[in-house]
Amino acid sequence: MLTRRPLIAGNWKMNFDHLRAVAFVQKIAWTLKDAKFAPTEVEVSVFPPFTDIRSVQTLIESDSLGFAFGAQDLSPFDDGAHTGDVSGEFLAKLNCRYVIIGHSERRQNHHEDDELITAKTKAALRHGLVPVICVGETSDDLDKFGASAVPVGQLRAVLAEIPADSEIVVAYEPVWAIGSGQAATPAQAQDVCAALRSVIAESLSPETADSTRILYGGSVKSGNIASFMREKDVDGALVGGASLDAEEFAKIVQFPRHVIA
Ligand code: 13P
Questions:
Q1: Interaxial angle between packed helices 53-62 and 18-34, expressed in degrees from 0 to 180 and rounded to the nearest 10
Q2: Which H or E element spans position 158?
Q3: Any idea what the CATH number is for the domain that residue 47 is in?
Q4: Rounded CA gap, 182 and 184, in Å?
Q5: Average pLDDT over the chain, rounded to whole?
Q6: Residue identifier of the C-alpha nearest atom 1 of ligand 1
Q7: How far is the CA of 218 from the centre of ligand 1 (A)?
């Protein structure tokens, strides 16, 4: 079994213009430096709005900050008459490593379905980007079907269409836990993440299942991150609100200092 490097990812959603983005990334870097925490054992990634990416890239690369960065969405198409879309090719040229796909806010507010999310995942892989595929159940789904059925179905739909050795990240984000202050329990997160890993083993391969990072997202804070990270199938977090506070985000990144095995 491989050791999976934990990934702490900050999804900024539609927050911070490019000027604030630069100041904010500098603040995270200084805070971690002051705390003498080098992000080597933990991978740190930020997901700014499209308009900030070039500025964030320039800062991270020129100051060798060691953070990864990515986009919050991409087009299923590579180029052409798609007004308002952003091609994976352009994101790859900006050295984005990751792209979030199928976040519940896009599934709900932009009516994205499994077919579109699959097409976007394929586009990301075509351009060498690592898709962060988001899945999760609403509170209605939870009542009707339990926790795993919907996220498992959403992931299965995408994995049916991609190569067995694809590098992907999966983010389990129960919709009822996003921005609600009511996180899943670590045991709930573990159960669903284990079910998702089995889907990867069946649909792709056992090796890919072993190496794929599965993140939990939904009201993650510095006070609960360590309890999630103790779970065997939780390999990191996709953080929303708490990723907009540099000190709080830096504390989350430093979770290994608080995890007692
Ligand atoms: P919160 O951390 O604000 O609950 O958001 C989670 C999320 O949607 C990350 O993608």
A1: 30
A2: helix 149-159
A3: 3.20.20.70
A4: 7
A5: 96
A6: 240
A7: 5
Q: Give the residue numbers spanning the domain of 118.
A: 7-257
Enter the tokens of residue 98: 């990751």
**Amino acid occupying residue 148:** S
Give residue 98's identity as a one-letter amino acid code. Answer: Y
Provide the token pair at 72: 């919050």
| Cα-to-centroid distance, 219 and ligand 1 (Å) | 6
**What pLDDT does 3 receive?**
84
Answer yes or no: are the C-beta atoms of 38 and 6 closer than 8 Å: no
pLDDT of residue 244: 98
pTM of the entire structure? 0.97
Model confidence pLDDT, tens digit, residues 20-70: 999 999 999 999 999 999 878 899 999 999 999 999 999 999 999 999 999
Residue found under tokens 């991978």: 43
**Does the residue 194 lie in any domain?**
yes
Cβ–Cβ under 8 Å, residues 212 and 200: yes
Which helix (H) or strand (E) covers residue 44, if one does?
A: strand 43-47
Pocket test for ligand 1, best of 132, 173, 182 (most atoms within 8 A of CB): 173
Q: Report which ligand 1 atom has the smallest distance to the Cα of 179.
A: 4
Token pair for 57: 């890239």
Using an 8 Å Cβ cutoff, are 132 and 9 in contact? yes
Reported as half-sphere exposure (CB side, CA atoms, 13 A), residue 235 has a value of 23
Instruction: Work out how many domains the chain is built from and give that number.
Output: 1
Residue 218 · residue 173 · CB < 8 Å:
yes
* Residues that are catalytic: 103, 173
